[in-house]
Specification:
Layout (H helix, E strand, L loop, with lengths): L2 H18 L6 H21 L3 E3 L2 E3 L3 H4 L7 H4 L2 H21 L4 H13 L2 H17 L4 H11 L3 H12 L1 H11 L1 H20 L9 H17 L6 H21 L22 H16 L1 H7 L3 H11 L2 H21 L12 H34 L10 H20 L13 H27 L5
Antiparallel strand pairs: 1-2
Helix pairs in contact: 1-16, 2-5, 2-16, 2-17, 5-12, 5-14, 6-9, 6-18, 6-19, 6-20, 7-8, 7-20, 9-19, 10-11, 11-12, 12-14, 13-14, 17-18, 19-20
């Protein structure tokens, strides 16, 4: 089959799915999901700015080299939009599950598999790369740097899975208290920042992973139930967020960069701060104020088909785009540092960005074509035909997977010690967690069938 024909088939399948979308579906949700992930991809490719100096690779960060670029993070830090979209989707899905008398295990198993399946091949491939690099004598610090850079995206999955796991609680809070549930979480984020930044309470700031992202997630519930149906309400929300953000950055301790910058004493994202929550409120208001015009735009079948196509592989693009980035840089270095001798931030460097982006895309596309099947397998999984996963398996699998993903972000799968050069325990956690959820129902059904009748 020719490449052109294959592309045509991919587009045709996406168009068929686009045409079958029910008329009541809010297409803007899918559009924002795709837009937010693509902004993350572009931001990562732009911020990481390594270059060769005196024969050695300098892992520069554009935000540190050119402080004015930190303002760009106000547009490229769009994780709040993804959690907003998640709140909308989870609220609609969980409400439908309740109407159909579905179980929590059935609902969350489907969501969990959809999120965890695509990351498993990424872990396995990078385990092989790290072990092979160590065996070949590559300096372990380089192996660790490459692995940690490629696996940066997995931190988000750990947080998002946990946020999804507590949807029954957060949605119940929304049904009972409405926006009061959002303001309660915002109050929690304010208290955490005060205790952390003013009184130096250690480690408490990590609880803002819950307070900040759950607060934005609650706004997704509000959106799904029509709270922002009037554009004027969305505009006021956006203005409130922008004014709050401006005051926090101008008079508070918060940096303007909405992601971590080397050398900064405070990061707005790891863990999230009140400033990032203000940005999330601003982005929510701006995005939903534009919803009526955007939904009219998405009535165009070609545009809607493109959105459907992107959403069918969006998690794969997100997970593999930095692997493509690393592969390109390694190849350029092995070819004598071609293109890496240009100092980041110079006019020549900016002029070369389109060329480098084209190369990144060219390497990312084959990876997406190869590994998108795992995302589609997760989306297509149907746990109902095997019975519910027992709760103890589901919770254990969830905790193990999230612990592994979080450890990957904090540490690295590459180890400075040991024969393999890999922290095998980090690799094992999400694999075991996924296996518990994947094979739990099969095992329990088989065990029940094996019991004598009457037991």
């Amino acid at each position: 089959m020719s490449e052109t024909k294959a592309k045509k088939n991919i587009w045709t399948r996406a168009r068929d799915m686009a045409e079958k979308a029910p008329p009541e579906r809010n297409r803007y949700v899918d559009f924002l999901r795709a837009l937010s992930i693509m902004a993350v991809v572009i931001g990562h490719w732009l911020v990481a700015a390594p270059f060769v100096e005196n024969g050695a690779v300098n892992g520069a960060n554009l935000l540190e080299l050119l402080p004015w670029t930190q303002w760009l993070t106000l547009g490229f830090q769009v994780m709040p939009i993804f959690f907003l979209v998640g709140g909308f989707s989870n609220g609609v899905s969980w409400s439908a599950n309740r109407r159909e008398d579905g179980t929590y295990a059935h609902w969350f198993t489907s969501r969990f598999r959809r999120l965890i399946y695509p990351v498993l091949p990424l872990f396995i491939i990078w385990t092989v790369i790290a072990a092979f690099g160590t065996a070949m004598g590559v300096e372990r610090t380089i192996v660790a740097l490459a692995a940690q850079l490629a696996l940066i995206p997995v931190w988000f999955l750990s947080v998002y899975i946990m946020v999804t796991a507590v949807v029954p609680l957060t949605h119940a809070a929304w049904r009972r208290w409405g926006l009061g549930s959002f303001f309660a979480l915002m109050a929690g984020a304010i208290a955490v920042d005060i205790l952390t930044l003013q009184y130096g309470v250690p480690y408490l700031n990590f609880t803002n992973f819950a307070f900040v992202w759950l607060a934005v997630h609650q706004l997704g519930y509000a959106w799904s139930e029509g709270y922002f149906a009037k554009p004027s309400r969305a505009v006021l929300t956006g203005l409130a967020g922008l004014i709050s953000l401006a005051l926090l950055v101008r008079f508070g301790p918060y940096p303007v960069a909405m992601i971590g910058v080397p050398g900064n004493d405070l990061s707005n994202s790891m863990p999230p701060t009140l400033a990032l929550l203000a940005l999330g409120i601003a982005q929510t208001g701006i995005a939903l104020a534009l919803e009526p015009q955007a939904r009219r735009m998405l009535d165009n079948l070609k545009i809607w088909t493109a959105v459907v196509l992107m959403n069918g592989m969006i998690m794969t693009i997100y997970l593999w785009h930095l692997t493509a980035f690393v592969l390109v840089l390694v190849a350029a270095y092995m070819l004598g540092g071609i293109g890496l001798e240009v100092i980041p931030g110079t006019a020549e460097w900016w002029l070369m960005r389109p060329v480098w982006f084209a190369i990144y895309i060219a390497v990312t596309l084959p990876l997406v074509m190869i590994f998108a099947r795992y995302e589609q397998a997760g989306a297509g999984s149907a746990p109902s035909d095997k019975g519910d996963v027992p709760h103890w398996r589901l919770i254990t699998g969830l905790l193990l997977a999230c612990a592994g993903l979080a450890s990957t972000a904090v540490l690295s799968i590459a180890s400075p010690l040991g024969v393999t050069g890999v922290r095998l325990w980090i690799i094992a956690l999400p694999l075991i967690g996924a296996a518990l959820v994947r094979f739990g129902p099969v095992y329990d059904l088989a065990k029940r069938r094996a019991k004598p009748s009457g037991e």
